[in-house]
Design brief:
about 45% helix; about 70 residues; globular; alpha/beta; 3 helices; three-stranded parallel sheet
Length: about 70
């Protein structure tokens, strides 16, 4: 998901809850956008697989996705 509105915690919480209801919580969730660095650990604790805040390089994104795919 790409989130620019600043409501990433609320959206992630809702998405992850709905995924759990549908029994598809094994699908990795990746979030990017205007995400304060201090909130990245919160998102990961919630179950988000990877977070790419503004300024993430293409290389960082590729490595992060590869890490998820190779699990």
């Amino acid at each position: 998901m790409s989130i620019l509105s600043g409501v990433h915690l609320e959206i992630a919480e809702e998405l992850l809850a709905r995924m759990k209801e549908k029994k598809i919580e094994r699908i990795p969730v990746v979030i990017g956008g205007v995400i304060p660095k201090k909130e990245i650990p919160i998102l990961k604790e919630m179950g988000v697989s990877e977070v790419f805040p503004i300024g993430s390089s293409f290389e960082e994104i590729v490595k992060g996705i590869q890490k998820i795919v190779n699990k």
